[in-house]
Automatic annotation (TrEMBL):
The keyword RNA-binding does not apply. Keywords: Transferase. It comes from Skermanella aerolata. The keyword Transferase applies. GO terms for molecular function: transferase activity. This is Glycosyl transferase. It holds the Pfam family Glycos_transf_2. Residues 10-173 form the Glycosyltransferase 2-like domain.
Amino acid sequence: MINKDDFTLSVVIPCFNELKTIRAIVDRVRSADVKKMEIIIVDDCSVDGTRALLESQIAPLVAKIVHHDRNQGKGAALRTGFKHATGDIVLIQDADLEYDPKEYPRLIDPILNHGADVVYGSRFAGGEAHRVVYFWHMVANRILTLCSNFATNINLTDMETCYKVFRREVIQSVTIEEDRFGFEPEITAKLARRHCVFYEVGISYYGRTYDEGKKIGLKDAFRAIYAIVKYSFLSKP
């Protein structure tokens, strides 16, 4: 059982070429309404000056910075970050400014008070503020979530969300195989097959454009379909 009055939240931030936003997101994470927090940044071989900024300004503000010697992808960065997490609860935070750390208390509440093993922050549930950007991204997210739900028999509204929160022992018990954005359907399928208790909470979302640095693309959608099939039906949970 997690002590509601004395727990540590590990925030894992995968980072690749986020020079413009990494300092701002670290400041926002540090300002979140959580008493004890461990911030872990995994720099996935950034080449835009992010690494120098991490070492010169951000290192004193966080618990740990881990550097990859070559770019491997978001899934690989999360795999590294999860290994270093020591908190009771582990939360994924993207290095851009699309997701608001002010919502951490809402995201961790189902684990502290309702027996959840994993919590997804849904961009499509509830009435929170959303920046309006790409129609086809929304369609793709809905289709991928529907396919994932069909395969796992759980009723998520946003499988592809960044905000995923786990009991540490749950996420560290899973072997993550996907190196890129296939992590999202992979972890969903593997935890569903283990009969973990899922919760969703509605979150705000401030989506960025490709000009602002958005990285996910069409090939990632095809990989997600492959991952849904593979990890739901063809591999061990």
